[in-house]
Design brief:
With about 575 residues, this protein is of the alpha/beta class. The chain is built from 16 helices and 15 strands. The longest helix is centred in the last third of the chain and has 25 residues.
Length: about 575
């Protein structure tokens, strides 16, 4: 079936508009709100030129726009620096003693948990120097122990833009206290090594940062293709169009990929059994996913009732990015992702748990997610080019720098990615039964619960969760057997699979209530019981607090498992 759908996609896929958009975006700075709006208008104009209707929403979203920054040395000389979005604006400067966070440094991990309080304590009253990127969790940890500023030493000769807010989307009133309260900057490796050496001598520097933070109206294009049969359910394909500078590989190529997919699916609209929506987000970095959060908030009830899956398109079509062997997706979607990747590229993909970034905004509603990025460089190619790990641009270290220009695009790779995304969406929009297997998610739950039990030993009992999970797994087995045997109508089967997502996704990816936004920090599997891992090293006088937490988390888990079982017509 997928081979037929891929053939249909290839017959109608035209990369002309996509190629033109990449070249146009290569000359446009979409970091600036006014220019970003012009970029969105260019996307809308390209769609309308093909006779495709598009709605241009204009939400007012909360953005932080980085300006000049520097590290001023005692002799008055300055080091080049970049302030991450949402860092405290401190144009007058803040002066302090440097301290190198040796215990917290080393390497360039993209998701490093904050070090222990004892490891951070030496930063109190000082300007902390860390290695890697300016990550929200680490800056928040330094701020919490009293650091007055932070300098992130990036691993190469370039400085990477980023953001240090832990707030997802526009803040609520209670979130305002979590906006960063210290200045932070990133510097390159050469200057960073010098600062590390200076820190050992107790040197003092002054951090200067300038940022403009406030409300900005931003265009948000949404294109909708209704189902041919009138079905209100839909597949959502999305990606951000704002960028750091020109941002060709992150995410100009993604915007172009979506444009090509839109044109192809419009040509095949008569065959769609579910609708398709494509949305291009503003405020990805400067708003910490403010565009997608606005959409999730504004259309929450429609998404809840009708969205069968969301697919994120970020940084496809980049040079040397020819590997599809590791693809982020939720567990229930892994077999389908593997089938599409194999059909389009001939490669075998392994699904990995999505991190909480890149506009993965819809877990709070309970929507199955597929992809985050797609094509990436292999580890061997990264090593051959002397690259360190980055999150986008297919692995090119031009990511989030002024070097993310037209040279980063590879139009052959972009066509492959367009085939991949178009086939993924087309397959979901035409599938008789949604191709998501909740037996895999339930099996993942079991492994998570068993791991939690191993952490606490005999001090806490997770057997009630396992007993309820036994019932769910048996019911899921009966349900899928009945579907495969044709004993359950396809429409009922798909409705059940979709309803399961509303229960199973939030309990596995979300700490807070539905329709709210968790902090922009990674969430462990089954977060309600995840802190069981702390038990072995927790002081005896704190274990009672964790026991209460695990009791409440287990109650939430059992409730979700029972509600999921109740959705199944067999069991």
């Amino acid at each position: 079936m997928l081979e037929t759908q891929l053939s249909e996609i290839r017959n109608v896929l035209d990369m002309t508009s996509a190629t033109a958009l990449v070249h146009a975006f290569a000359k446009q700075d979409r970091e600036i709100p006014a220019e970003a709006n012009r970029g969105a208008q260019m996307i809308a104009d390209a769609l309308r030129a093909k006779g495709i209707p598009v709605t241009l929403h204009q939400p007012e979203i909360f953005l932080s726009l980085p300006g000049p920054a520097s590290v001023v040395l005692a002799d008055g000389s300055q080091m080049r620096a970049k302030p991450p979005a949402f860092a405290l604006s401190c144009p007058q400067g803040i002066e302090g003693e440097l301290v190198y966070m040796a215990e917290a440094g080393g390497g360039t991990p993209l998701d490093r948990n904050p070090a222990s309080a004892s490891a951070l304590e030496c930063a109190r009253g000082k300007i902390a120097v860390i290695e890697g990127f300016a990550l929200p969790n680490f800056i928040a940890g330094l701020e919490a122990v009293g650091a007055i500023g932070a300098i992130a030493v990036n691993p190469g000769v370039d400085i990477h833009n980023g953001t240090v807010s832990t707030i997802w989307g526009t803040p609520e009133l209670p979130d305002l206290s979590r906006l960063p309260k210290i200045p932070s900057v990133a510097v390159n490796r050469i200057d960073g090594d010098r600062l590390i050496a200076m820190a050992s001598q107790g040197a003092r520097v002054t951090l200067k940062t300038e940022l403009e933070t406030g409300w900005f109206p931003q265009n948000l294009p949404v294109m909708e293709i209704p189902a041919a049969n009138g079905c209100e359910d839909f597949v959502l394909l999305h990606g951000h169009y704002d960028s750091w500078g020109e941002g060709v590989g992150d995410n100009g190529t993604g915007n172009a990929c979506m444009l090509a997919v839109a044109e192809a699916l419009w040509a095949l609209r008569g065959k769609l059994q579910r609708g398709v929506r494509l949305a291009w987000w503003p405020g990805h970095s400067t708003g910490r996913y403010a565009g997608s959060a606005w959409f999730a908030d504004t259309f929450a009830r429609d998404l809840d009732k009708h969205c069968v899956a969301h697919i994120n398109c970020d940084s496809p079509g980049c040079r040397w990015a020819v590997s599809y062997e590791s693809v982020q997706c939720l567990a229930e979607a892994e077999p389908y992702v593997q089938q599409v990747v194999a059909a389009v590229t001939g490669q075998h993909a392994t699904g990995i748990r999505p991190q909480r970034n890149s506009d993965y905004t819809f877990s709070n509603i309970g929507v199955t997610g597929l992809f985050n990025s797609s094509s990436m460089m292999t580890a061997e190619d990264r090593a051959a080019h002397g690259y360190y790990v980055v999150a986008g641009c297919g692995g090119n270290i031009a990511w989030h720098t002024e070097n993310d220009t037209i040279e980063i695009a590879d139009f052959d790779v972009l066509r492959t990615d367009a085939e991949l995304y178009a086939t993924t969406v087309y397959g979901l929009a035409t599938a008789e039964v949604l191709p998501f297997d909740w037996r895999l998610t339930a099996a993942e739950f079991r492994q998570t619960i068993l791991k939690a039990q191993a952490s606490v030993g005999a001090d806490f009992d997770f057997s009630p969760s396992l007993e309820v999970l036994d019932v769910l797994q048996a019911s899921l087995s009966d349900f899928y057997a009945a579907v495969e045997a044709g004993h359950i109508a396809a429409t009922q089967a798909s409705a059940t699979i979709q309803a399961l997502a509303r229960v199973m996704v939030p309990v596995n990816f979300v700490r807070g209530p539905r329709f709210s936004h968790d902090p922009a920090l990674n969430t462990p599997p089954l977060p309600g019981i995840a802190d069981a891992s702390l038990w072995p090293d927790l002081p005896e006088n704190q274990r009672g607090f964790l026991r209460a937490q695990l009791m409440r988390g287990q109650n939430r888990l059992i409730d979700a498992l029972e509600r999921a079982t109740g959705l199944l017509p067999i069991g």
